[in-house]
Amino acid sequence: GDHAGDPRDSDALRCLRRVFGYDAFRGDQEAIVEHVVAGGDALVLMPTGGGKSLCYQIPALVRPGVGVVVSPLIALMQDQVDALRALGVRAGFLNSTQDMDERRMVEAEFAAGELDLLYLAPERLRVESTLRLLDRGKISLFAIDEAHCVAQWGHDFRPDYLALSALHERWPDVPRIALTATATEATRAEIATRLNLGGARQFVASFDRPNIQYRIVPKDDARKQLLELLRTEHVGDAGVVYCLSRRGVEDTAAFLVSHGIEALPYHAGLDAATRAANQARFLREDGIVMVATIAFGMGIDKPDVRFVAHLDLPKSVEGYYQETGRAGRDGLPSTAWLAYGLQDVVQQRKLIDGSEGDDAHRRRLGQHLDAMLALCETVECRRARLLAYFGQPGGASCGNCDTCLTPPTTWDGTIAAQKFLSAVYRLARERRQKFGAGQIIDILLGKKTAKVVQHDHDTLTVFGIGTELSAAEWRGVVRQLLAQGLLAVEGEYGTLVLTDASGEVLGSRRQVPMRRDPARPARAAKSAKG
Ligand code: ADP
Ligand code: ZN
C-alpha cells in the first residue's frame, strides 16, 4: 500500500523516488546506475554538481550488501553521512577523526550487515585490519570518489589512492565505480590504468556549463576591480572569492566588509568552529560572499552561487574549472571572473621552484601552469579552449565569455618581443645579470630610476628603445611571452631568462602575435550603472 509506483519501474527508479524524493534521473545517471546495479565496472566523468553521488548511492541500496565509498574528503564525511541518515539510509564512516569507540561501533554495524553505505578515507585501506573487517561483511560495490587523485599527472595526486588497485585483486567480483569531475584525456587514461579499470564502461558527461560566463581580465588593482564587479553586476548575490594566501583572504574579506559587503573569510588557519560557522552562514543565509583559499568548496552544495571570482591565478586549468564550477549549479546565469597579472606568474613559478618532490613533479606543475596561462592569453573563445582541454571540442565561439563578447584584437608583437628579449639577452651577456620584469621595463622606457642608475643600466644600448608602449602594455607583452614559452621566470626573485625558443624571435625566424587587452573589461549586458 505505500507509494510503490508503477510496477514496471526499475528498482533504481523506485529507490530514487522513495528514498531521495526525486522524480527522474538526470543525464547519464540512469545508464550508470543500471550498469552498476547489474554488476558492471564504471568510470564516470561528470562536472561538479552533475549528480555523481546518486550514481553509487542508489546501486548500493539496490544491490545486496554494503556499498564501500572511498573518499579523500574526510571533513565532509560526517555531513554526508548525516544527510543520508536523515533520508533513512543506514550510512557510516571510518576515518582518522574518530576515536576508538566510534570506530568500533561502525565496524560492528558493518559486520552485522546493518549498513547500506560505508565511507572510508583512502588511508584506511592501507591498514590490514580494515581489509580484514571488509572480509567479514558483504560488499555490494566499491565507489572511488575523486578518482583523479590516483593520477600523478593530475593536479591533486594522493599517494594513498595508488593502493586502491588492490581492491580488485582482493574482491574480484565486486563492481567498482570510479568518479571524478576533472579529467583530461591523460588523467582519464591514467585513472583507468592505475585502478585496473581498463575494462570499465566509461560515462563522459559534457563538461560545458553554458550558464557560466567566463571572464579573465588583466589585473590592475584586483580588490577594486572585484568591488566594481560586485557593485555593478552582483549586488546582494552569494559568491565565492578565491585568494591564494590566508593573508589575502583576511585582507580581501576586511576590504569588502569595509565597503558594505557581507563577506566572511575561510581558510585552514582559522579554528574549526569559525570555519564551520562561516560555512553554515554561507549555506543558509542569502547574499554572503565567502572569501576563501581553495580549502573551501569541496563538496559544498549551494545551488545559487552567482559568481566565483579569482584574485590570484589558479595553479591549473583543472583547478580553475573545478572552482568556477561551483557557480550556478541551479542553471541560472552566473559569472566566473579571474583577474590575472604578471606578478601571478612570477609567484606561481616561485612556488613551483620551491616545491617538494622531484624534477618530474616540478615539470608537471610547470605544464599545468603553462596551460592555465595559455587559457588566460588566448584570443579564442574561453569555453572552447576549456572544453578542448578536457578533450571535448565544442563550437568555435560560445557567445558567453569575454573573448566572444568583446573580441580582443591581436597585433604583431614581434618587434616588441625582440626589444624585450634583447634587453634580457644584453643584461645576461654584457653584465652577467638577471632582473625581473619591472627593471627591464624601466630600461626599455628609458626611466632613470635609482635602481637603473645604480646598476648603470642607462648606458645599455637598449635603454629607452621601448617608449612606444606604456608600462602596463609592456607587462602584457611579458605575460604573453611567458604564456608562449618565449621567456621563463626563475628563482626567488622572479628573474627572467630566455628559453630555447627565444632565439627564433631574436633571429626573426618567428612572428609573435599578441592579444591586445580590451580597453574596457567585458561586462554582461545588465543594468550596469556608472
Ligand atoms: P556532484 O557530486 O557531481 O558534484 P551531487 O551528487 O552532489 O553532485 O549532486 C548535486 C546536486 O544535484 C545535489 O543537490 C543533488 O541532490 C542534486 N541531484 C542529483 N541528481 C538529481 C536528480 N536526478 N534529480 C534532482 N536532483 C538531483
Ligand atoms: Zn566564448
From TrEMBL:
One of its GO terms (cellular component) is bacterial nucleoid. The keyword DNA repair applies. The keyword Aminoacyl-tRNA synthetase does not apply. Keywords: ATP-binding, DNA damage, DNA recombination, DNA repair, DNA-binding, Helicase, Hydrolase, Isomerase, Metal-binding, Nucleotide-binding, Zinc. Residues 222-373 form the Helicase C-terminal domain. It comes from the Bacteria. Its EC number is 5.6.2.4. It catalyses: Couples ATP hydrolysis with the unwinding of duplex DNA by translocating in the 3'-5' direction. Its cofactor is Mg(2+); Zn(2+). GO terms for molecular function: 3'-5' DNA helicase activity; ATP binding; DNA binding; four-way junction helicase activity; hydrolase activity; metal ion binding. Residues 510-530 are annotated as: Disordered. GO terms for biological process: DNA recombination; DNA repair; DNA replication; SOS response. Residues 33-201 form the Helicase ATP-binding domain. Belongs to the helicase family. RecQ subfamily. This is DNA helicase RecQ. The chain holds residues 21 to 550 of 652 of the full protein.
